[in-house]
Amino acid sequence: MAVVVAQAAVELSQRALKVARLTLGGPQVAVEAPQVTLDPPQLTFLASQAFFLTRGWVWGYGETTMALSGPSSYLPTTDEFIAHWTLVNAALASDPLVLGATVNLASLTAMRSALLAQRTLIQEKINDVQMLQAEVREMRAALLMRFDQATGRFRSQVPDSKWTRALPLTPSPGAGLSLFLDAMNDVAHLWLRFNADESGFELPGDCTQVVFATMITSLNAKAQALTNAETAVSLARDDRNKMQDEIRAVLRDYRQAVPSYFMPDAPLIASLPRLTPLKGKTPEPVAAEGEWVVATSEGKIVWSESEEPTLKQYQVRWSPGTEAADYSTEDEEVLGTVVPPAAREFLTTKGLLLPGGVSLFRVYVVLDTDNEKGSGTVVITRPE
């Protein structure tokens, strides 16, 4: 058993060193698995050192872990606890750690999987909202064009009449839906009466009053579908937040339980993952910008250097949306971590796989205390 766990720990070390070499430009280091039986203290030390490496303690460049700071941090932070719990169970051998009567490592792993599935569900529902928003914008634009044509026809056929004096003001493209629909319905009603009392008219493209009224009805139905979709996103976020609360409670209890199983100077105590950021200052944000790189068919994000003396890492995060104002810290996800002195750039195809794709990104400065601050939103568009 000891040899198996030792070999697993060395494999973790080898992967960590490979990542470090690729990320930081360091030399590749070969690590041979020891074919010996280790006593418990030796095994615990080796496993803990492997854990430190996988968490980012590589060549003194700083720790790449993260504490809970928002929805985007729950999956990577939970992964840190799962990795640590795995090593604790290996050290405890036949008596793995259980919280309360039933919460064990498998429980936390299942909760993590459920949270990932819920985040995916939220993304799908946000996509539904974005598609409906686009359809509503197109329908509003088409109606506004017909509105302008209809009011213009009134003014040309019966200028300075009761009909023109009854015309509503033209709503702005961004007017609230109720105000927009009121104006459309006013014209539809006047048009219906004008057709009955006067000579009537038909707009180009076979657009009759009936067609115009049907366009209004369709927009109203589509807007209601959009409202329903937005409600579905809100409910899905509520369910996600409940899952996060449950995970947070397990992580808290785990941190409280582990010290009772080991001596205070044990490596597994020193490597216990942090739950929340420490007290301290919020860092200054960096300036970030992005572009589409035609040669590699990737989006490229670059940023200025942070002057924070306790800088731990930069994190690149993504949010669904098509405009800078759409960026949501509620729905962002971590794409990757860059640890100084690695180059301050990040390549990605997230949301950019198809021509015309638009993606939103931010670069976060993260300090040793896990306090963080994001940059302004970077918008990258893949050309059609």
Overall description:
The structure is a single chain. By secondary structure, the protein is an alpha+beta fold. The longest helix has 53 residues, at 105-157. Strands 3, 4, 6, 7 and 8 form a five-stranded antiparallel sheet that branches. It has a three-stranded antiparallel sheet with strand order 1-2-5, with no helix packed on it. The chain has helices at residues 2-24, 40-55, 74-92, 105-157, 162-165, 177-197, 209-257, 267-270, and strands spanning 288-293, 298-303, 311-319, 333-338, 345-348, 358-367, 372-374, 378-381. It folds into three domains: 2-97 and 261-270, no CATH class; 123-234; 278-381, Immunoglobulins (Immunoglobulin-like, Sandwich), CATH 2.60.40. The chain is built from eight helices and eight strands. Mean pLDDT is 86; it is low at 1-64. Strand 1 (288-293) and strand 2 form a beta hairpin.
Largest sheet, strands/sense/barrel: 5 strands, antiparallel
- Name the structural class: alpha+beta
Bin the helical content.
40-55%
List unreliable stretches of 5+ residues: 1-64
The number of distinct β-strands equals 8
Our count of domains comes out at 3
Computed CA radius of gyration, to the nearest angstrom: 29 Å
**Helix count from the secondary structure assignment:** 8
Estimate what percentage of residues fall within beta strands: 5-15%
Q: What's the overall geometry?
A: elongated
How far apart the termini lie comes to 57 Å
Mean pLDDT: 86
The helix-strand sequence is HHHHHHHHEEEEEEEE
